[in-house]
Amino acid sequence: MSTGLAYMTPTRRARTLLLIALVGANLLVAILALYSLDRSQALYEEQARTLTENVVSSLDQSVSSSIRSIDLALHAVVDEIEEQLVSGQLNEGLTSAVIARSRERLPEMEGLRIADASGQVILGTGVNKQEAVSWADRDYFIEHRDNADRGMRFRKPRFGRVAKQYIINFSRRFNDRNGNFAGVISAPIAVNYFAELLQQYQLPPDSTVILRDADLGLVARHPAIADRPAGQVGDANVSPEFRARIESGVQSATYHISNSPDGFDRVLSFRRLKNAPMIAIVGVSSDHYLAGWRAEVAKTATMVAGFFLLSILLGASLLRMLVRSERDQKQLALSEGRLRAIIETEPECVKLLDKEGRLLQMNSAGLAMIEASSLEQVAGHSVFDIIAPESRQAFIELHQRVINGESAMLEFAIIGLNGRRLSMESHAVPIEVAGEVAHLAVTRDITTRKQTETELEAYREHLEYLVKARTAELRSAKDAAEAASRAKSTFLANMSHELRTPLNGITGMIRLARTRMTDEKGLDQLDKAKFAADHLLSVINDILDISRIEAERLVLEATDFKLLPIFESLRSLLGDKAQAKGLELHATLPPNLIDQTFTGDPLRLSQVLINLVANAVKFTEHGSVSIRTIEQPSTPGVARLRFEVTDSGIGLDSEEKTRIFSPFEQSDSSMSRKYGGTGLGLAISKRLVALMGGEIDVDSTPGVGSTFWFEIELPKSTRAVSDDDRKTIASQASQILRLHVGKRVLLVEDELINQEVARDMLEHVGLVVDVAEDGQQAVEMATNEDYAVILMDVQMPVMNGLSATRAILAGSKNAQTPIIAMTANAFTEDRAGCLDAGMKDYLTKPVDPERLYRTILHWLSDQPIAS
Question: DSSP per residue over 313-359, as a string?
Answer without folding.
Answer: HHHHHHHHHHHHHHHHHHHHHHHHHHHHHHHHT-SSEEEEE-TTSBE
